[in-house]
């Protein structure tokens, strides 16, 4: 069943397959796949014989599984580079404005974790340049094959796979175009960044993303890959994977030892935060707030997509299917905001990693009380976190809240976010709208 819709997706967006193919090196089966959809590029000696097609079809539908339609990396490089058993690979599955930068820091600050901030940005930009905010499910899913392929490579420290998507294409494995390079400590510290050899420089470079980019010079991707290999673990944060089931093939891959932390947040909080951040995209919502009248052409899909993706993922996770055993943890942003240290300890215990004191120090410095202005800029959501997590209650109008909670009703119930029925209830911050719930990982 899963196969058939994925196949439809493939047919519908074959043009993406072609771009993807142009980006990566050709492999027989992929060419076969293009034959299959009648889109084999001319100028290549492709034999679209029935035999080839049969082979590709069976390979696609059975051998690789449909999840891996685009994924051919497994044959293009050796996978047993290191002892997978000792290496934990972490994925932060999130959506924009759900607190994912903060959660990313909980790994970025760990000296034994190689952390990458949103590498899939480059996949989206290369394959769907005009659709950076695409909510079209068909289109989003079309990117997934490429995205998963890249994730697998990155966890194995084949960072050069990422080069294929960076524009302009890096020469000699050197680039200054890596998205948010400064968000990754490993990429701003020696040996990747020699500018920060002086301890004073180093703390400056690590405290400020812009400083890292300015002081460290172009990124040597080969060197970064060496560092990735030298670290015990790797963590990747992404807002570009819609649902947990999209990751099933990676989770089930024993070589990968992948553990997923799904970060969720009250959709009303996400909405309020997006309205502030993505001012153009959410212009009509601001208009609604300003005028008190809902614009007729308001794009309701913007919030519906979040709620649908969350609902499907969380329902799957809470149903505890065998393939998620020991591999899935649900984390509510509000809980992390209220109990950052306690929740971080839970997180590390789920991952089976030792929580380093530098992570704890970072939490203490960045959750409340610190007066360091550079970190305040970046983590306003983290600062005085408990209050901030619920400050949407004074930022959205009552109508907007009612609309959102109606659209997202089943999700709110599932995650323990209370609905409000009266403006007085909404604005009375002494009453939390977050129910006490524990979502424990299962083993
Ligand atoms: C792998 O982990 C085990 C147990 O934690 C440890 O004894 C062993 O030394 C580790 N191996 C390597 C290569 O790090
Ligand atoms: C989504 O994208 C597909 C492929 O580009 C297109 O056929 C379909 O009409 C789009 N759906 C919506 C709702 O825009
Ligand atoms: C990048 O680092 C590698 C070592 O991993 C080195 O051999 C190479 O010369 C460096 N490239 C540049 C452009 O500095
Ligand atoms: C926390 O703040 C103290 C004092 O400003 C500073 O010395 C220390 O390096 C900070 N630690 C982290 C991990 O940010
Ligand atoms: C806010 O809620 C608290 C706790 O339920 C209640 O005691 C208080 O009277 C409420 N304040 C207002 C202004 O309604």
UniProtKB/TrEMBL annotation:
Enzyme class, spelled out: transferase
EC number: 2.8.2.-
Name of the molecule in the record: Sulfotransferase
Protein's membrane topology: Single-pass type II membrane protein
Similarity comment: Belongs to the sulfotransferase 1 family. Gal/GlcNAc/GalNAc subfamily.
A Gene Ontology term for the protein's cellular component: Golgi membrane
GO process terms (BP): carbohydrate metabolic process; keratan sulfate proteoglycan metabolic process; N-acetylglucosamine metabolic process; sulfur compound metabolic process
Gene label: CHST1
Keyword Membrane carried by entry: yes
GO molecular function, one term: N-acetylglucosamine 6-O-sulfotransferase activity
Transmembrane helix among keywords: yes
Residues spanning the signal sequence: 1-23
UniProt xrefs under Pfam families: Sulfotransfer_1 (PF00685)
Location relative to the cell: Golgi apparatus membrane
PANTHER family: CARBOHYDRATE SULFOTRANSFERASE, CARBOHYDRATE SULFOTRANSFERASE 1
Limits of the Sulfotransferase domain: 88-414
Key words, A-Z: Carbohydrate metabolism, Glycoprotein, Golgi apparatus, Membrane, Signal, Signal-anchor, Transferase, Transmembrane, Transmembrane helix
């Amino acid at each position: 069943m899963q196969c058939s819709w994925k196949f439809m997706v493939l047919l519908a967006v074959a043009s993406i397959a072609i771009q993807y193919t142009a980006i990566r090196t050709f492999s027989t089966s992929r060419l076969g796949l293009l034959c299959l959809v009648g889109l084999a590029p001319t100028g290549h000696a492709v034999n679209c014989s029935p035999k080839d097609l049969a082979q590709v079809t069976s390979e696609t539908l059975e051998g690789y599984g449909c999840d891996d339609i685009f994924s051919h990396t497994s044959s293009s490089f050796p996978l047993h580079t290191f002892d997978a058993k000792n290496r934990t690979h972490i994925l932060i599955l999130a959506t924009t404005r759900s607190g994912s930068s903060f959660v990313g820091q909980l790994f970025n600050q760990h000296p034994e974790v190689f952390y990458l901030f949103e590498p899939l940005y480059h996949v989206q930009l290369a394959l769907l340049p005009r659709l950076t905010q695409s909510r079209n499910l068909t289109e989003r899913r079309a990117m997934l094959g490429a995205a998963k392929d890249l994730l697998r490579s990155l966890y194995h420290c084949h960072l050069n796979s990422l080069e294929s998507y960076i524009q302009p294409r890096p020469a000699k494995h050197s680039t200054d175009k890596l998205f948010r390079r400064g968000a990754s400590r490993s990429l701003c510290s020696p040996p990747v960044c020699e500018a920060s050899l002086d301890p004073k420089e180093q703390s400056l470079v690590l405290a400020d993303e812009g400083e890292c980019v300015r002081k460290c010079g172009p990124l040597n991707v080969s060197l970064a890959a060496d560092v990735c290999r030298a670290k015990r673990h790797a963590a990747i944060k992404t807002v570009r994977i819609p649902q947990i089931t999209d990751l099933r093939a990676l989770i089930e891959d024993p070589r990968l030892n992948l553990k997923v932390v799904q970060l969720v947040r009250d959709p009303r909080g996400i909405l309020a935060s997006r309205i502030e951040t993505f001012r153009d995209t959410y212009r009509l919502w601001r208009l609604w707030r300003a005028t008190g009248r809902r614009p007729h052409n308001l794009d309701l899909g913007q919030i519906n997509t979040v709620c649908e993706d969350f609902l499907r993922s969380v329902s799957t996770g809470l149903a505890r299917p065998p393939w998620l055993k020991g591999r899935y943890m649900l984390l509510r942003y509000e809980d992390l905001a209220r109990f950052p240290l306690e929740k971080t300890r839970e997180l590390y215990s789920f991952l089976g990693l030792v929580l380093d004191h530098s992570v704890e120090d970072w939490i203490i410095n960045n959750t409340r009380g610190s007066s360091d202005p550079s970190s305040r800029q970046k983590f306003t959501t983290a600062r005085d976190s408990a209050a901030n997590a619920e400050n949407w209650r004074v930022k959205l109008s009552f109508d907007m809240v009612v609309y959102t909670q109606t659209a997202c009703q089943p999700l709110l119930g599932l995650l323990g976010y209370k609905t409000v029925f009266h403006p007085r209830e909404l604005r009375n911050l002494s009453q939390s709208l977050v129910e006490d719930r524990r979502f424990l990982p299962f083993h």
